[in-house]
From TrEMBL:
InterPro entries: CheY-like_superfamily, OmpR/PhoB-type_DNA-bd, Sig_transdc_resp-reg_receiver, WalR-like, WH-like_DNA-bd_sf. Pfam families: Response_reg, Trans_reg_C. It comes from the Bacteria. GO terms for molecular function: phosphorelay response regulator activity; transcription cis-regulatory region binding. Residues 123-220 bind DNA. Keywords: DNA-binding, Phosphoprotein, Transcription, Transcription regulation, Two-component regulatory system. PANTHER family: REGULATOR OF RPOS, RESPONSE REGULATOR SAER. The keyword Transcription regulation applies. The keyword Transferase does not apply. This is Multidrug ABC transporter.
């Protein structure tokens, strides 16, 4: 059971999602007025679903406003399918996106995958040259300085680092990290890796190599 916040300006969609998630025994809060989101106790939620195209304050603006204050997964609900829009949303710190119209079974599966990822136990530390992973706290450090990765960025780094030297396709990384297969959704991996590289490069680390036409590998 998880506490989930759903934000969408369409009452029919809010009702549909709420009823579906109640079947999984989740506690669901719905908000139709996007301007009220930032006044909510967001720390109480285990996952947040945000529609992108809303009057008043769109999902991108909300994510930008709240990402630094919450560390739970943020998933966009979006009718925007252009890669540039999806890349922009993930660049704001969202963990994933679900394209409208969506199947309710697929929605439940994606949410379940993110919640399982959140609950996995971590107990060890992984050292790779100047990079070390606090596996229990899901944190990455370079020379004792914490790198400000989102949860999804961290999970991608850990997966590649645990399997260093092996090459994985975008689809393979998506399925391994998020626990749900979807070829179109692997676009998210491209943007996450772009953001990871930018953050690691500030500390002089070049850890992820692109193998053109195949995928990515951790090379340290």
């Amino acid at each position: 059971m998880a506490k989930i916040l759903v934000v969408d300006d369409e009452p029919a969609i809010l009702s549909l999602i709420r009823n579906a998630l109640l079947k999984d025994n989740h506690l669901v809060t719905t908000i139709a007025d996007s301007t009220k989101v930032c006044k909510t106790d967001l720390g109480a939620y285990d996952l947040i679903l945000l529609d992108v195209m809303m009057p008043g304050m769109d999902g991108f603006a909300i994510c930008r406003e709240i990402r630094s204050a919450v560390d739970c997964p943020i998933l966009f609900l979006t009718a925007k399918t252009l890669e540039t829009d999806l890349m922009y949303g993930l660049g704001l710190g969202a963990d994933d996106y679900i394209v409208k119209p969506f199947g309710i079974g697929a929605l439940r599966a994606r949410i379940g995958a993110h919640l399982r990822r959140e609950s996995r136990e971590r107990r060890n530390v992984l050292y790779l040259e100047n990079v070390h992973f606090n596996l229990s706290g899901k944190e990455l450090y370079i020379k004792e300085e914490k790198v400000p990765l989102t949860k999804s960025e961290y999970e991608i780094c850990e997966f590649l680092a645990r399997n260093r030297g092996q090459v994985f396709s975008k689809e393979g990384i998506y399925e391994a990290v998020f626990g749900f297969h979807g070829e179109s959704d692997s676009t998210a991996i491209t943007e996450h890796i772009k953001n990871i590289r930018a953050k690691l490069s500030k500390s002089g680390i070049d850890a992820i190599e692109t193998i053109w036409g195949i995928g990515y590998k951790w090379k340290l």
